[in-house]
Amino acid sequence: MNTRRNFLKNASLLSASTLLMPQLSMAAIKKASYGVQLYSFRDAMLENPKATLEKIASLGFKEIESAGSKLGYYYGLTPSEMGKTCKALGMKLTSGHVRLDDKFEQTMADAVASGQEYVICSSMPTDGQTVDNYKKVAEQFNVAGEACKKLGLKFGYHNHEYEFESEDGQILYDVLMDNTEEDLVHMELDLGWVVVAGKEPLHYFKKYPGRFPLWHLKDMDIHGKESTEFGKGILDIELMLKNKDLSGAKHIYIEQEEYASTPVESMRHNMNYLKNI
C-alpha cells in the first residue's frame, strides 16, 4: 500500500501537471453549483435537522447528500419529509450514503420516496483486501445497480483509502472499476482519500474518463490524518475543478469531518475559498 510519505511528492505532481491538463475557466468554477455531504453536520443534524438544513442553505449550498446516522439515513425525518424540506429551502436532495445489506430493498424504496437520484454504498460491504473479493463485490454492485435502475435510481460507490491497496501488482480499486458496468455503477470519487492513499485523482480521471459523476471534494492536512479547510491541505482544489469535465463530475459534494472551529465556520470558509479562487 502506498503510504502517507508520498503526500508531498503527489502534491508536487498535481501542481506540476496543471499546464498539461484541459482547462476549465475560472468563471465556470465560480458558477458551479456545490452540494454538501451531511456527515459534515452530523451532530447538528441529529439535534435539529430542519434548522440545520436551513443554516446549510444560507451558506449557498444547492444540493444535499445524506448519510447514515443513529436515526437512519434521514436523521429522524421521513424520506418524503427530508426531500420536501430541502426543496422548500431551495436545495435538492440528490444523493445518499447507504449500506448494501439485507435492508437494501427498503433503502431503495425510501430513496424513491425522498426524490433523490443516487444511492451510494458508503464503504466496502465485505471484508477481504484481495482481487477475488473485489471481483465478487463488483458483481454485487452490478446486481444492485440493475435493481436501482429498475426503480429509476442510480447506484454508486464511495471510496476511502484502503481500496487503493494492491495484491499481486493489481490495485484493488482498479479491479473494482474494471469489473463494474459503467451504466449500473456510478462512482463517487473522494478526492481527499485518493491523495491520502498516495494516488493522483488526475490519473483516474484520465484512465477512466467520465466514470466519476459524483465527487467528495475534501482537503486533507499534510499528515493525512484529518480533513481540513480548503487551501490548508494537500489537495490542489483549483486543478481538480479545472478537470472536472474529464472526470464526468455532475455533483460535487463538499465534505469535512474535522474542523478548526465549527462546521458552519469551516463550510463558510470553504464556500468563500471557491468563490475567490
TrEMBL record:
Signal peptide: 1-27
Any one GO MF annotation of this record: isomerase activity
Top-level taxon of the source organism: Bacteria
Domain Xylose isomerase-like TIM barrel, first and last residues per copy: 54-276
SUPFAM superfamilies: Xylose isomerase-like
Transmembrane segments: none
Residues forming coiled coils: none
Protein keywords: Isomerase, Signal
Keyword Signal: yes
PANTHER family named among the record's database cross-references: HYDROXYPYRUVATE ISOMERASE, INOSOSE DEHYDRATASE
Protein name: Sugar phosphate isomerase/epimerase
Organism: Maribacter stanieri
The organism's taxonomic lineage, starting at the top: Bacteria, Pseudomonadati, Bacteroidota, Flavobacteriia, Flavobacteriales
